[in-house]
Amino acid sequence: MQSAVEPVPESNPMAHRKALLLAFEKSGYLRQFLALGIDIGVFVFGVSLVLMDSALWVKLIGTTLITAGIVRLFLIGHDACHGAYFKNSTLNSIFGRIAFLPSMTPYSLWDVGHNVAHHGFNNLKGRDQVWAPFSKEEFDALPGYRKTLERVYRSGFGWGLYYFLELWWKKMYFATKRQIGATRAKYHWDSALVTAAMTAWVAVVAVVANQTDQNFWLLLALAVLVPFALWNVIMGFVVFVHHTHPAIAWFQKRQEWQRCRAYVTSTAHVRFPFGLDRLMHNIMEHNAHHLNPRIPMFALRRAQAALNVAFRDQYQNYQMNWVSYVECVRKCKLYDYANHAWLDFRGQVTSRVEVMAPAPVAAAA
């Protein structure tokens, strides 16, 4: 069993972060290559089922497996991009890029948007751009089409469109300097790499369709387009519930954001029905992940258990169900940053957020 986190005075929160690092930041090789191989196998097997000249229901199982493979491989790439998957940084760079290929995620651009902007400043408006809510004044100033998009995004069913347009298309795939504030050769090379991989994927579908006399468009939809769309839906949903909740605060003032230690207090620990969160490489253990992104996925569940003792009820910890989700969607449309309250699109207060610095850390058992 992994040792628990040693008690650390709350006056030194970085020391507590270091304690987590020492207790749980242990990467290896065998388990990592095994997980990578299994997830690549799931993806390839799914593609094989779709491309076989078989019944539609078999192809639909393949589409499901392809989607699962994309999600799980992305999470391995995510771990590698944090430098948490392998001990060796070169292996992280190589296999992180490989794991990102099915989701068309450019490695270096994900690093900029996720590791630097999101993890460095989660829930700080102007720095973190992931599901950052508009104020009522900002929303009213938007053009009509953008207001409509925002209503769709926050309708409870617009997660995939949000992730595809606002994050992947604008911030990752051949992202411009205007969108991310900088340009580097590696950004273009990584975008070209995922484009080449997608081109090869489509070419395989075309060759198989031609040789087996199957409908190319059906195979393309079930092997490529539908899984990629579902991937965007799943990713958009997961990042929404990680940092959006009627009791979770967003900030405009950096000093207030620092004082409230949003890396813990503005992050939710969510359990899905039927244990579905366990299929996602422990990424729902999100408080531990934000406190120390170098903790590998294999240790996140134990790290989160330690946090549940050390931080008690200082972050949202809940079981996702239809009622809790509908309440979150209904209440979390816009945000009043001055008074810390969630609003609906009319500007009516739906939930007031209690904002305070975390209480002293308790000793971990």
Summarize the structure.
This protein is mostly helical and 365 residues long.
Topology summary:
Layout: H1 13-24, H2 30-51, H3 56-81, H4 89-100, H5 107-121, H6 136-140, H7 144-157, H8 159-172, H9 177-180, H10 185-212, H11 216-243, H12 254-259, H13 262-265, E1 269-271, H14 286-291, H15 300-310, E2 317-319, H16 322-331, E3 334-336, E4 341-343, E5 349-352
Parallel strand pairs: 1-2
Antiparallel strand pairs: 3-4, 4-5
The whole-number mean of residue pLDDT values reads 89
Overall form: globular
Biggest sheet strand line-up: 3-4-5
What's the helical proportion of residues?
Answer: 55-70%
Number of helices: 16
Number of domain modules:
2
Structural commentary:
- It contains 16 helices and 5 strands.
- By secondary structure, it is mainly alpha-helical.
- The chain folds into 2 domains: 1-26 and 248-365, no CATH class; 27-127 and 155-244, no CATH class.
- The strands form 2 sheets. The protein has a 3-stranded antiparallel beta sheet, with no helix packed on it.
- Helix 3 packs antiparallel against helix 4 (89-100) and helix 10 (185-212) runs antiparallel to helix 11.
- The longest helix has 28 residues, at 185-212.
- The two termini are 13 Å apart.
Pick out its properties.
mainly alpha, 2 domains, three-stranded antiparallel beta sheet, two-stranded parallel sheet, 16 helices, 4% strand, disordered C terminus
